[in-house]
Amino acid sequence: MSTEKYIILRSREISSPTRGDMGTRGAGVNTFSRPPATIKLEEADLTKRERNDLRRDPRTRAIAMPMPLKLIAPVRRQATDTPPSPPLDTTATWGVKAVRAPESRFDGTGISVAVLDTGIDPHHPAFAGMALVQQNFTTEEPNDLNGHGTHCAGTIFGQDVNGTRIGIARNIERALIGKVLGEGGGTSATLAKAIQWALHEGAHVISMSVGIDFPGYVDWLVQQENMNVNPATSMALEEYRANVNLFTELARFVQAYSTFGQGAIIVAASGNESNRPKYEISVAPPAAGTGIIAVGALGESDKGLKIAEFSNNQADISAPGVDILSAEAGSDKLTSMDGTSMATPHAAGVAALWAQRQLEMTGRVESQSLMAQLIASGTYAALDPDSEEDDVGTGIVQAPLN
């Protein structure tokens, strides 16, 4: 009997989650009657009968076929010359200043952040002295061969480079670097495993600038399975929905962890598929999952900060994502990139500052309140007056000041 590979998320005991609503797509509040200490995530080759049996099992929280994972690639990359010698005063990038990180007394002390991306260049001076816990979920070498993950990590916690401040939470001492994408790509199963790894390693904030490749999966079904485009699209849509549910359930378990352990939140890029003003695309998974904070990208304009033309809508929060200067892999320099991938680490860095504040005030980080604080920090004050909530969410994310 033929089998197909599936991702299965289940608990060893039956739980009854109850869900609330904070009024925002990504800010669902989930409480569980029992802590999810015994959740199990696995891949298995299943027959049709086995798959149906698992779907009827009340312990099964989600079941989905792995879908191709792709980098939410920068819309633009631009090399830049790093100042040869430090200026008298450190100058922060416009994005770091826009989220008011230089005004905050918080610096990420005591907080762990996970970056699930293309890895990191651990030799870049932006990460000097940091404890980088690297986990390779690909078949290539563990360090960053693309540069995307290095750039994102630099925005979250990078140290100053030749007098330029690129990082928001510069005193994070331990960063979890999950390499989920290599040149051979990856799958949603890889990302799901990396989320579980980051949670078990004690991450307070999980940052992801990757997405599910829906068009690529349709093409694969047409070319490799010799299917007509119409049934291929319908099949891809079915698995798309199943994968959104998978990441929603994973986000629930991440939130519920704080009922008995350290809390964590997931921050993800909304995607770069829009082409404003011609058309707008809704937030892509995994950011589309309920309980995952979707981040839109902002750029500078004469009227104030404005949604980037490529940024998908239905974001929960927005952050700087155009002309973002950060660490360049394979060198000791900085480089500029555009994309919701660049906005996401700004939000993740600010989340780390809010997590530090919560840790200092209460002795622990609690997922639901951290998510609420981050989303509530958004403001329209610096935005173009024509900004719409569907595009920018609650506005540009802001660091806690005291």
Automatic annotation (TrEMBL):
The keyword Signal does not apply. GO terms for molecular function: serine-type endopeptidase activity. The active site is at 117 (charge relay system), 148 (charge relay system), 341 (charge relay system). CDD domains: Peptidases_S8_12. It holds the Pfam family Peptidase_S8. Residues 108-371 form the Peptidase S8/S53 domain. Keywords: Hydrolase, Protease, Serine protease. GO terms for biological process: proteolysis. Residues 16-35 are annotated as: Disordered. Belongs to the peptidase S8 family. This is Subtilase family protein. It comes from Thiothrix caldifontis. The lineage of its organism: Bacteria, Pseudomonadati, Pseudomonadota, Gammaproteobacteria, Thiotrichales.
